[in-house]
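Hey, can you fold this one?
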Amino acid sequence: MLSSKITIHSLHQSYLSNPDSLFTHLQAYTRRIREKNESIRAFLYIQELKQPYFPSVPKMLPPLFGIPIAIKDNIWVENMPCTSASKMLETFIPPEDATVIKRIKQAGGLISGKTNMDEFAMGSSTENSAFFPTRNPYHLDYVPGGSSGGSTAAVAADMSLCALGSDTGGSIRQPASFCGVVGIRPTYGLVSRHGLIGFSSSLDQIGPIARTVEDAFQLLSVIAGYDESDDTSLPVQWKDLTEKKPTTIAVLDEIEHLEMDKEVFDLYQKCKQWLAKHFRIITCHIPSFQYALSAYHIIADSEASSNLSRMGGDSAFYPPFEESYEKTVIELRTSKLGEEVKRRILLGAFTLSSRFKEGYYQHAFYAKEHIKREFEFVFQQADAIFTPTTITAAFPFGTRMDPRKMYYSDICTIPSALAGLPALSIPVGLNENGLPVGMQFIGNPLSEKTLYRLSQWMETSWHA
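Sure. Predicted structure:
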C-alpha cells in the first residue's frame, strides 16, 4: 500500500503542465475502485469520475480541483444513496448535500462514492455493516477498523486520494491507524455536522482522511468553518486559526498502564525517545482517564437512543401500516437493525429512564467535564499530547465479538473526544505481521494549525 506518489499538489502541478493528465488520473482511479472493491469492499456505492469543465487552464486551481474524495455513507450527498450501512435506510436518497459536501464541490472536488461503515457508526471494525464487512488492504483477513473503515481502506488501497469519515469516540483515528493513513478529528464544532446522520450529537465530528498530512489538512481547510445550519458550529473560520511553534509535548502516565500489544508499546517508546531529542517531554496525568470509556458509552448510547428513536416510524420510507403503528415499528426495527445498534439503543434507553438518568447519564456528564478540565490543565504546560492511537494493530475478523473487548479498542481516542479536542493519527511503522501502527497527537481546542506543523514535521523526519 501507499506506493503511489500522487498528492493533491502533484496532481495539480501535473494538470497545469498537461491538462490531459487529469482525465488519465481520473480514469485510473475509477478503474482501481472497480477492480479492488471486489476484494476490499470499501465502497457501498461507486460514482463514475468525470473530468470537471474548465474553460482554460488557470495559474491557480481551486484547492480540491479534480481530486477524487470518498464519502462515508452517513454523510448526505444529493442524489446518492445514504444508508449509514443499515437496511433501515437502504432506500434513502438525501434531498440535498451536507454542508461539507457543498464546500468540497465549491472547491472543485469530485465525489468518488459512498464508503462502508459500521451500521450507524456503531462499531470499531466495520464488521457491523448490514451489507458486508470491509477488509484491510494490508491483509484481507484483518479488519480495517471502524466505524470509518471503508473510507480509510479506500485511501490506503489507492482507490481514492482523500476521504471523509466521522469520529465519535475514535472512528476516524482508529481505522486510520489500522490502515496506515492520516486521519484527523477536528475540534468539536469546527466542521459542520449539517447533513451527517447523527450517532451522538454532542460528540460526532466529520473529519478528513488522506495518505499525507498535507493532503488531510488541505481537505480540512476546505470543510472547516462556521455554518449557520448547525447549532453546534463554532463562529470561526479556518483563516482565523493561529499557529504556534510547539516546544513542549506531554505524555500521559495512564498510557503506560494500559493492556497494549508489545509491538505497539515498543514503537510508542521509540517515538517518545526520538521526540525527546527535539522537544521538551513532560509526563502528565489525566486522573479521570479511567472513567472515560464508561462515561463515553453512557453519553453516546443515550444520545443514539434518542437520535434513532424515529427510525421505523417514517412512512416516507415504508409501505402504509397494515397493522397498528406500534407493531409495525417493532417489526421494522427487529428486522432491519443490527445487533450492535439494538444493544446500544437498549443501553441508552435504560440510562435515560427516569429511574436511572440521575445515577448514570448525569454522572457521565460530570465525568466528561472533569476530563475536559484535566486536559485544560495539561495544555497549560504543553503544546500537544502524544499517545498511541490504538493499543493494538488491526485484528483478524471475528476475534473481538465480545462488546467489551471491541469497546476497549478506542481507549486511547475516547478521552480527547469527550473533551472536544482536535487529534490526529499518523502512521509510524508496521508490526511483525506487516500491519500498520499509528500514533496520535492531541491538541488544545482550535490548535489544528499547530498540529499540522507538528505532524508534518514528524511525517518527514521520523523513520521507524
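The first strand starts at residue 43 and ends at 46. Let me know if you want another pass with a different chain boundary.
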